[in-house]
Amino acid sequence: MKRTVEIVLTIIGIVLFGLPVLLSGVLLNSADNPQIQQEIENFMNSPEVQMEGEMSSTDMTQMFEMMGSFAMFVLIASLIAIGLGILAAVFLKGNKKPKAAGIILIISAIIFTFATVFIGLFGGVAYLIAGIVALVRKPKKTATDEAISY
């Protein structure tokens, strides 16, 4: 039995989980760039931005550290989701372990949609659909199967 639909949906999910990888990469780059940090600090302390008080440089440093930590967490979660998607596609190829692949895809869809703070929502949906189809789809009976099952 061919598992083309499940493999295609899994590959689409892998590509869509690449979006959080790109976004977190950009966020990590901007968190480490002192020029961008200075521009954001100037913007936050400008008179056009109405805030209760000015942000000190320590507040800004903490904000950039949190931004970098968040981006690193999303990056790692997305890379794990991509790795599990590749593993599931290998299991689906040649109809080796479709049940295991379906379970991996469904669990990955749920966990990594939340882990990426819904940035990987579309990848999670693709994984979820592929996982459900992999679990629900029954193999076609062949002539030898029907002859054996008196």
From TrEMBL:
Cited InterPro entries: DUF4064
Bilayer-crossing regions: 7-28, 70-91, 103-136
UniProt keyword Transmembrane, yes or no: yes
UniProt keyword list: Membrane, Transmembrane, Transmembrane helix
Keyword Membrane applies: yes
Residues forming coiled coils: none
Pfam families (alphabetical): DUF4064 (PF13273)
DUF4064 domain sequence ranges: 2-114
Name by which UniProt lists this protein: DUF4064 domain-containing protein
